[in-house]
């Protein structure tokens, strides 16, 4: 019982700290853009932002549109948060590399001419479409070395690039506890320890093959060599 109370108190302190970070941005604007992968971290970030800002502009970057699992969470947060203005479903910037270098597909003619696209260019496009400068991300510093390097800014705010990271000090356990508290079912992790967004990980591909056969067929039209990854993953 005492352990449960300590955990609850610790989570409450983290929530207050996250809200305080967001309120620093709220002093400048009543609206914010939220990057959402519909993974556990970004779902928690959407909820925290909904508590502080009057209007949310959410964007999701897809590898393939129309995945039912993603659509299920898109509808969930659209229904749940009345201050969400829009959920923009945009092609992932990584697709420019995937097509340019024919990853998981034959070298179809013209792929080498695919324009290169960067994360920052997508971010700036969303800013242009929404008219909102500040973007909130559900990145955590203990998620990876790469994220730890990025999240070197005091209090999780990057004033130079207009980015805020409200859960930068949280652990995965904290995020799961928060989702449980607010009643949002956690998304699958596809066999990974800490991430839950949908990408090219073999476990995510296996999920499509086993649970969304119609989506899997569409996926194979774009990335016909994907079954090779499943074979290698199983044998590895």
Structure notes:
With 236 residues, the chain is α/β, with parallel strands linked by helices. It has one domain (2-190): Rossmann fold (3-Layer(aba) Sandwich). It contains ten helices and six strands, in the order αβαβαβααβαββαααα. It has a six-stranded mixed sheet, sandwiched between helices. It is globular and about 50 Å long. The protein starts with a helix and ends with a helix.
Write out key terms for the chains shown:
50% helix; six-stranded mixed β-sheet; 236 residues; alpha/beta; globular; 10 helices; Rossmann fold
Strand order of the largest sheet: 3-2-1-4-6-5
Q: Give the CATH H-level superfamily.
A: HUPs
* Shape estimate: globular
The portion of residues forming beta strands comes to 5-15%
Overall residue-averaged pLDDT value: 90
Total E-strand runs: 6
In short:
The protein has ten helices and six strands.
Task: Set out the fold topology.
Blueprint: H1 2-26, E1 31-35, H2 40-52, E2 55-62, H3 68-80, E3 84-91, H4 94-100, H5 119-130, E4 135-136, H6 145-150, E5 157-158, E6 163-164, H7 172-182, H8 202-211, H9 213-222, H10 226-235
Parallel strand pairs: 1-2, 1-4, 2-3, 4-6
Antiparallel strand pairs: 5-6
Helix pairs in contact: 1-2, 2-7, 8-9, 8-10
């Amino acid at each position: 019982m005492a352990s449960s109370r300590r955990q609850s108190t610790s989570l409450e302190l983290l929530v207050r700290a996250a809200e305080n970070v967001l309120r620093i941005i709220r002093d400048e604007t009543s609206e914010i853009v939220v990057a959402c992968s519909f993974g556990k971290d970004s779902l928690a970030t959407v909820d925290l932002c909904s508590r502080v800002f009057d209007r949310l502009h959410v964007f999701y970057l897809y590898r393939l549109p129309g995945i039912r699992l993603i659509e299920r969470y898109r509808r969930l947060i659209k229904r749940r948060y009345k201050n969400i203005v829009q959920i923009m479903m945009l092609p992932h910037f990584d697709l420019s590399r995937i097509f340019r270098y024919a990853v998981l597909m034959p070298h179809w003619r013209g792929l080498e001419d695919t324009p290169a696209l960067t994360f920052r260019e997508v971010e700036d496009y969303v800013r242009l479409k929404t008219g909102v400068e500040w973007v909130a991300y559900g990145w955590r510093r203990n998620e990876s070395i790469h994220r730890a390097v990025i999240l070197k800014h005091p209090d999780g705010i990057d004033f130079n690039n207009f980015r805020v990271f409200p859960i930068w000090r949280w652990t995965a356990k904290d995020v799961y506890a928060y989702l449980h508290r607010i009643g949002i079912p956690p998304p699958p992790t596809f066999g990974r320890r800490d991430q839950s967004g949908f990408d090219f990980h073999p476990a995510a591909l296996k999920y499509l093959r086993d649970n969304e056969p119609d989506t899997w067929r569409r996926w194979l039209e774009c990335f016909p060599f994907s079954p090779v990854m499943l074979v290698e993953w199983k044998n590895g």
